[in-house]
Amino acid sequence: MTLLIFLLILSILVLVHEFGHFIVAKLSGVKVEEFGIGFPPRILSIKYGETVYSINALFFGGFVRLYGEEQAVQKDSQRAFSSKSKKIRAAIITAGVIMNLLLAIVAFSVVYSIVDIPRPLGYVRVEEIASNSPAEIAGLEPEDAIVSVNGEKVTSYREFIQLIENNKGKEVTVELRGKSGEIRVVKVTPRESPPENEGPLGVAITDTEAYSPPVWQRPFWGTVYGLKEAVFWGKQIVGGIGAVFASLITQQKVPEGIAGPVGIFQITGGVAQQGALALLHFLGVLSINLGILNIIPFPALDGGRLLFVGIEALFRGRARAIIPKVERVTNMIGFGLLIALLVAITLQDIRRILGQ
């Protein structure tokens, strides 16, 4: 079952990405020679109209082969990719990335249209208290509202955490508001070396609550939080990709935290046990990941192809004519490097799984 779910998720991601290239190319009058899932050798194909639709053996990816994409052509040149303006070519190249980002937003929006959404409380609330912790000894109780620390008003958990971190090992005065509204003041000393999985006070806090909006409002709030979730994961993934490249350059090795196809397959099995909404959220995260990875200006990726469109705009005359040849060579090299990186990540995934 995990394999089927994994293949379904992968197929959706590839189809959506390649459909972006496909539909913009069609709308722009470019002839699409082949729409392929996976990379050759070809397993199955069917021709409909002027386009071959294929399923290929190397299943991790996909492609859209455009007429005149690799080099200028003389026959039916008005329908060739290479004959189109730079704006049209850029639009075709970036369409896949845009479709992946849209898929992620839709996936997140559906999730947040069904589940309760987080809503700011406007204050910090105590959720849990660890046994024998400074918080328990001082008399903090679940559902207490934290009003201030050392006279400084607290409205978010970040403010509270920062104040406590700045005063580790020192006695602090915490003003609390109980469930019935009574105000009390306690003194507590945050630990400098708390036990594992416990903070300096040994208290779990939150500044949000789960809110269930009316049914008619859910699509609106779902879209709002879907966009927020997409932005959040976009930032996380960009930071993660930066860390990967930094590790490859400085340490010449793949970071331990990165997962390839085998690792994603393993994660899919765990996520599937949490239900359909968790899988849909996971699909959104993977879709953003795929979109951002593809826009990196690296040969063989969409970002690399887009870079060459920009380079072409800077040159005129004979220099401009050799750019497609340079692009073909660099794309071949880039594709080889990507395959080598994929193999290295896959081997790392296998070693990690065997180690577990």
Write a compact overview of the structure shown.
The protein has helices at about 1-25, 85-115, 135-140, 155-165, 220-250, 260-270, 275-295, 300-315, 320-355, and strands at about 30-50, 50-65, 115-130, 145-150, 150-155, 170-175, 185-190, 205-210.
Q: What is the 3D form?
A: elongated
Count of domains? 2
Task: Report strand %.
Answer: 15-25%
Beta-strand segment tally: 8
Q: What is the H-and-E element order?
A: HEEHEHEEHEEEHHHHH
Helix content: 40-55%
> Main sheet, how many strands, which sense, barrel?
6 strands, antiparallel
| Unreliable segments of 5+ consecutive residues | none
Number of helices: 9
Radius of gyration: 27 Å
Terminal Cα separation, in Å? Answer: 21 Å
- Determine the mean pLDDT: 83
Strand pairing plus helix content: what structural class?
A: alpha+beta
Describe this protein's structure:
With 356 residues, this protein is α+β, with helices and mostly antiparallel strands. It has two domains: 2-114 and 231-355, no CATH class; 117-211, Roll (Pdz3 Domain), CATH 2.30.42. 52% of the residues lie in helices and 21% in strands. It is built from nine helices and eight strands. The chain has helices at 2-27, 86-114, 134-138, 157-165, 218-250, 261-272, 276-295, 302-314, 318-355; strands at 32-48, 51-66, 117-129, 145-149, 152-153, 172-177, 183-188, 203-211. The strands form two sheets. Strands 3, 4, 5, 6, 7 and 8 form a six-stranded antiparallel β-sheet that branches. A two-stranded antiparallel sheet has the order 1-2. Helix 1 (2-27) packs across helix 2 and helix 2 (86-114) packs across helix 5. The longest helix has 38 residues, at 318-355. The chain starts with a helix and ends with a helix. The mean pLDDT is 83.
